[in-house]
Amino acid sequence: MILQAISTNLIPEDISLAIPGNLGFFEFLIVFSFALHILFVNITVGSSVLAVFQEIKGMSKKNKQIDAVAQQLADHTSIMKSIAVVLGIAPLLLISVIYTQYFYSSTNLIGKAWLALLGILIVAFLILYLYKFSWEKMQGGKKGLHVLIGAVGSIMLLFVPLIFIVNVVSMLYPEMWAGSKGFFHSLTYYPQIWQRYIHFILASFAGAGIYLYFWNRRLDRKVDNMSPDEMSSEEKKENKEIQKRAKKVGATTVMITTALQLVAGTALLMSFEKEIMMLYMGEDMLLTTLLMSSILLTLVLLFLVYRLGKTDSKGAFIGSVVVFLVILGVMGWMRHELRESYLGDYLEANPRTTEKVLPVLEEDGEVELLDEEEIDAKEDAEATEEEADADSDAAVEEDAEETTDEEADAEAEKADEEAEETTEA
Amino acid sequence: MNYPVIEFPWLGNGMMIALIATIHVIVSHGIAIGVTALMVSLEYRGLKTKNEQLIGVARRLSKWVLIITTTVGAMTGVGIWFVTSVIQPDSIGSLLRIFFWAWFAEWIVFITEVVLLIIYYYTWDTWKGEKRKIHNRIGMVLGVFGWLTAMIITGILSAKLTPGKWTETLSFWNAFLNPTYVPSLAFRTFIAVLLAVSLISLPLRIMIKDAKLRKEVFKVFSVWNAITIPGILISGIWYLLSIPDEAADLIIWATGMPEDLFTILHIVGLALFLIFAFWMAVKPEKVPVILTFAIFITSMAFIGEFEGIRESVRKPYVIYNYMYANGVAAQDLDKFKEEGYLAHSAASPIKEVTADNQLEAGRELYKGQCITCHTVDGWRTKRAFADRLDGWDEEGLAGYIATLHETRPFMPPFAGTDEEREALAAYLIKVSNEGIDTDLTQASAEADNK
Question: Distance (Å, rounded) from C-alpha A30 to C-alpha A332?
Answer without folding.
Answer: 9
